[in-house]
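Lab manual, section 2.4: Encoding a predicted structure.

Procedure: take the sequence of the chain (155 residues), apply the prediction step described in section 2.3, and record the output as structure tokens. A sample record is shown.
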Amino acid sequence: RRMLTVARTRWPMMSAGMVLYLSLQAALLWTCLDMLGNHLGLATVLTAFAVDRLLTAVPLTPGGSGVVEAGTASALIALGGQPAAVAAAVLLYRAFTFLIEIPVGGVWALAWFGVQRRADRRATRSGGVVASGPQRSAPTGAGPSRSGRARADAA
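Recorded output:
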């Protein structure tokens, strides 16, 4: 329920965040290629990045490991990149996205969950409603009583 509220109210911010995230990843790929001697155009790099993103979505291996690197490198080589430098750049790019992104994201996630947990505790102590737990409404009336047993028990 809380996630639906966040998705409904904050979708513009989440969309902008995803555009920024993907733009930074494409810039990282372009930087890795450029640093290793592949001076390719923006359209070539964006095409290879699109291949990278598409192959990541195919669940052949965890995180697309191996498949994504081979596909991205193949696209870059087909579009004019130098094979050895392309392979090195793609492996460097994937190392950055796995070896840096995952631990940093894990730390941020732990911090976020910690903040949420403290906020929930404070709300519970002050008598407020805890937003992250399941929301249950108080029963109304005597409840379902097909046989009339609930009314007889209440009396």
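Check your result against the sample. Confidence is low (pLDDT under 50) at residues 142-155.
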